[in-house]
Write a structure and sequence with these properties.
With 103 residues, this protein is mostly helical. It folds into two domains: 38 residues; 37 residues. 72% of the residues lie in helices and 0% in strands. It is elongated, with a radius of gyration of 26 Å. The two termini are 45 Å apart.
Length: 103
């Protein structure tokens, strides 16, 4: 019984100390990540990647619309109650805006 109590006490002490050290390390990593994300070079690369993704999305959308499958989809979507335009994402995933709530 004494061994079990010592074991449980050791687990509790390890949990408390580990949680405290873990939180400090997490905060340190969060600050470093924020510095990297706010660096002008990273911001520029993000803008370039966003522009390229937007361009590739538009090209793919045009190619699909001009293909036989795209024609078939546009024909079937006009006969159903859900238009094809409602299937696109309405949020600005590639808008470049970031949440300031942290990482």
């Amino acid at each position: 019984m004494r061994g079990k109590l010592l074991f449980i006490g050791g687990l509790a002490a390890g949990f408390v100390l580990g949680a405290r050290a873990g939180r400090e390390k997490y905060e340190e990593l969060r600050v470093q990540a924020r510095k990297v994300l706010d660096h002008p070079t990273v911001q520029e690369a993000t803008g370039v990647a966003q522009a390229q993704a937007t361009r590739l999305y538009a090209e793919g959308k045009d190619k699909l619309a001009n293909s036989k499958l795209g024609e078939k989809l546009s024909t079937t979507s006009s006969t159903t109650t859900t238009p094809a335009s409602s299937l696109t994402a309405t949020d600005d995933t590639f808008s470049g805006s970031r949440s300031t709530s942290g990482i």
